[in-house]
Structures are given as C-alpha cells and as structure tokens.
Write a structure and sequence with these properties.
The chain is α+β, with helices and mostly antiparallel strands. 55% of the residues lie in helices and 14% in strands. The chain is globular. Keywords: Sigma factor, Transcription, Transcription regulation.
Length: 307
C-alpha cells in the first residue's frame, strides 16, 4: 500500500481526533492536511503509519489549540464549536459513544481541560488508544499520561452531560419540537422544554445573535414561537438533521444558503438546551452561507408590515 493510500485510509480517524481536540472543522482539516505534508516529506518509513499519523495530528492539534485559546478569550459573545453534520470515522460497535463525544455539550466541557488533558481524554476515552501510544504521541511518560487521564476524567465526570438513551424517542421529541417551532405553538413548546431550558447563540459579532443566554421554558418558548413564523415570511426554511451527533437543524434562506444551525440536548423526555451557530466563519463547510444581516432586515420589515 502506498503512503497516499495509507493516509487516505486513516484520514477519517485523523480528522475525528483533531476535531474533538479543536472543536473546529476548518482547524481540524488544516491539521490533517499538515499531517499529510509531514508524512509525505518523511524520509524514513514509519513502523506504523497509524501511530505516526495519529501522533503527528495530535501534536499539531495541541499547538493549534494553545493559540486558539487566546483568540477565544476575546471572542465576541458566546463561543460554540463549529457544527459538524457527519463524523467521517465510523465504528458500529461504539456509534452511540462516538456520537456523544461529538456533542456540543461535551466539546464545551472539553474546553475546560488543558490542551494535554484534552488530547489524552480524546485518545484514551474516545478512541481507546493504549497509554504507550498516548505517551509516544504526547512525548510524555506513561505515568504522566495516566495522571493527565485521571485529571481529565475527573473534570469530565463532574460535568458530563447525559443524553436521551433511546435514539428513537429523542428523534420523535425533536420532530414534535420542530413542528411546534414552525407553527409558533407556545403551549406545545413549553411542554417540550425543561423548566430550566436555555437557548444559546453564537454569532461571533458577524451575524445577528442573542444579547444574552435566554433561560426558562416560558421565555424560550415565546422566543422560539416568534422566530420561524417571521422568518418564514421571507422564505427561510428549517431542515431537521443530525448535528454533532444530536438532533438538530439547518436554517436556509430562499436561495438555499445556510443561515444558521441548531443543536438540541435532550434528557428525560425534554429539551434542555438549544445551541444556535450563526457565525458565518463557522458555517462555510456546510455550503454557501447566507447574508444573515440582510435576512434579518427583511424579516423585520415583514414583521412591521403585519403589525
């Protein structure tokens, strides 16, 4: 097998490692590309392509994450990970676990870890790498990596979100929720939302966004009920789909361009959190991006014309 073939076979794994460390599709893709360049330029044949490539992409991702942390400290508004529709890495026996590790709730929790803790957690808990492999990837002793794993697991367990175990029930709830959003049905939305439900928006200062996190079933229901009916007047459509391994949706303008995404956290038969990403810098990998400001202006005009 040629180097190109070896790399392409492992690309899904490499991207999935990088995305979970970085929470960014574009940065993960760049890390994978840099990994290929180093692999192609290597003058020695590694004993294991998987070990070489996973080590390289992990180290690159750690370096990128360290610089990204500084940028996120001055980010405008709430920072959320870039939405991902499909994880290229598949393992049927661990599909549920892999999906949970992709969720925005888990990715946000991973943000609390140091870059090394995050890398160890991803490699060990998500991809089941052995400690000798992890130690080699991080250039640390096995003992040090075990300590990093203990600390990371402690932090994650303390705040680890739980999700609806039954996938079908989760999807049926999401279907009812999106129907209520389309209909602007406040009462139905209240019943589907947890008492302390919240909606969080990430526009990055580059798209209309919530001024603050909206909390409470009644407040969230009223906001949602007023949202899509107005956007529908300017031909915005809601397309339910899986986002980051959880129920979600893509909103599109009349030309089919991506306006924003939603992801839903579902627990105990109710929706706990809705996360909306509208920062255009985080949507480009999903297709052509809409002018959210223009859509917002048109929607506001449509609202005024009917009041």
């Amino acid at each position: 097998m040629s180097r190109t073939e070896e790399f392409e076979e492992l690309r899904p794994l490499l991207f999935s490692i990088a995305y979970r460390i970085l929470g960014s599709v574009s940065e993960a893709e760049d890390a994978v590309q840099e990994t290929w360049l180093r692999f192609a330029a290597s003058t020695t044949e590694p004993r294991s392509a998987k070990a070489f490539l996973s080590t390289t992409v992990t180290r690159i991702s750690i370096d990128v994450l360290r610089s990204a942390r500084a940028r996120r400290e001055v980010y405008v508004g709430q920072w959320l990970p870039e939405p991902l529709l499909t994880d290229p890495y598949e393992d049927p026996e661990r599909s549920a676990e892999l999906a949970d590790s992709l969720s925005m709730a888990v990715l946000l929790l991973l943000e609390r870890l140091s870059p090394l803790e995050r890398a160890v957690f991803v490699l060990r808990e998500v991809f089941s790498f052995g400690f000798p492999e992890i130690a080699s990837a991080l250039g640390r002793s096995e003992a040090a990596c075990r300590q990093l794993a203990v600390r990371a697991r402690r932090h994650m367990d303390a705040g680890r979100p739980r999700f609806e175990a039954d996938r079908q029930e989760r999807e049926e709830l999401a279907e009812r929720f999106f129907f209520a959003v389309r209909e602007g049905d406040v009462q139905c939305l209240r019943e589907l939302l947890a008492a302390d439900a919240q909606i969080v928006g990430d526009g990055g200062g580059k798209a209309p966004q919530l001024a603050r996190v909206v909390v409470g079933a009644d407040n969230v229901a009223r906001l949602l009920a007023s949202y899509l009916p107005v956007l529908a007047k300017v031909d915005v459509t809601l397309e339910p789909c899986e986002v980051n391994g959880q129920p979600g949706a893509i909103f599109r303008d009349r030309d089919g361009k991506v306006l924003n995404t939603w992801t839903l956290d579902v627990l105990d038969g109710q929706i706990q959190t809705i996360r909306s990403v509208s920062n255009p810098d985080k949507l480009g990998h999903l297709g052509p991006v809409a002018d959210a400001w223009a859509v917002n202006r048109e929607a506001n005009r449509a609202r005024r014309s009917t009041t």
